[in-house]
Amino acid sequence: MTDQPRAILADDEPHLLDYLASQLASVWPELRIVAKAANGVDALRLIDEEAPDVVFLDIRMPGLNGLDLAARLSSGTKPPRIVFVTAHEQYAVDAFDHAAVDYLLKPPSLERLGRTVAKLKEALRTQGASAAPALAPDALQLLLQQLRLQGVPVGVAPASAPAQVAAPLQWIRAAHGEETRLIPIEDVIYFQSNDKYTSVFLADGESLIRTPLSKLREQLDETQFWQIHRSVIVAARHVAGTRTDFRGRLMVQLKGRAEQLVVSRNYVDLFRQM
């Protein structure tokens, strides 16, 4: 194993790429992250250019699925060691346990990532010129079959196919006082535009992100997050009901919270049936 092993990270959610990079810096400071990719096609190109020792692959990525990418890499003469990263435990986790790779559930804790790093260090230490395939062929076929049964596209999208719609945002990297937090989207009560920032309101306080509300809206599941004002998006599960104030404005009442949110005229139709 070299003094400074090299890695590439691939995930279509930038904040999770940054989070994984920061966690790796803590548990494996000698690891050099040489590139990050936002989709499978870019990841394949970068891996070919950089020849990293280790690759962290998201399973669901636009263009080229993480498992299909692993299948291509395993056919090489000296494939990198691969760790799959997934937000969904149902993606053949048992099969991963029997394959010659590791998996991580998002977001990985330092303790869990530390165990993965220990496996990788041992694999790289014992790796010779005839390294074993990154993933056993039988295990790979099992994983691909299970993903197909679950409706996950496997393979490169044809050039004429429409671009894949990105999955709804699952995590938010936000400033909270002096620290940076990775916040699960289900913990958010509402977002509110705040000058150059967007405030993220949680049960335990308020955090800040730089993403404009208009951009944030494109990344949210519109069935779960409702825009009620040009400056406010609220989580539907936290809406207790509505009332009309003395000025005739429609107000959203939140579960277990005192503040009430104004619904602008453009969004009143959302609540006609309430």
Q: What is Rg?
A: 22 Å
Reading the helices and strands in chain order gives EHEHEHEHEHHEEEEEHEEEEE
Report, as a whole number of angstroms, the end-to-end distance.
63 Å
Given helix and strand content, the structural type is alpha/beta
Oligomer: single chain
Q: Largest sheet, order of strands side by side?
A: 2-1-3-4-5
Strand % is: 25-35%
Give the number of helices.
7
* Rounded mean pLDDT score: 80
Helix content: 25-40%
> How would the global form be characterised?
elongated
Largest sheet: 5 strands, parallel
List how many beta strands DSSP finds.
15
- Taking pLDDT < 50 over at least 5 consecutive residues as the criterion, the unreliable ranges are 91-95, 129-133, 156-165
Characteristic key phrases:
274 residues, alpha/beta, five-stranded antiparallel beta sheet, 28% helix, elongated
Polypeptide structure, described:
The chain has helices at residues 14-27, 40-50, 66-74, 93-97, 110-126, 137-149, 213-219, and strands at 6-10, 32-37, 54-58, 81-86, 102-105, 171-176, 179-184, 190-194, 197-202, 205-209, 225-229, 232-235, 239-244, 250-254, 260-263. It starts with 5 loop residues before the first strand and ends in an 11-residue tail after the last strand. The strands form 4 sheets. It has a 5-stranded parallel sheet, sandwiched between helices. A 5-stranded antiparallel sheet has the order 10-9-8-12-11, with no helix packed on it. It has a 3-stranded antiparallel sheet with strand order 13-14-15, with no helix packed on it. The model is unreliable at 91-95, 129-133 and 156-165 (pLDDT under 50). The protein is built from 7 helices and 15 strands.
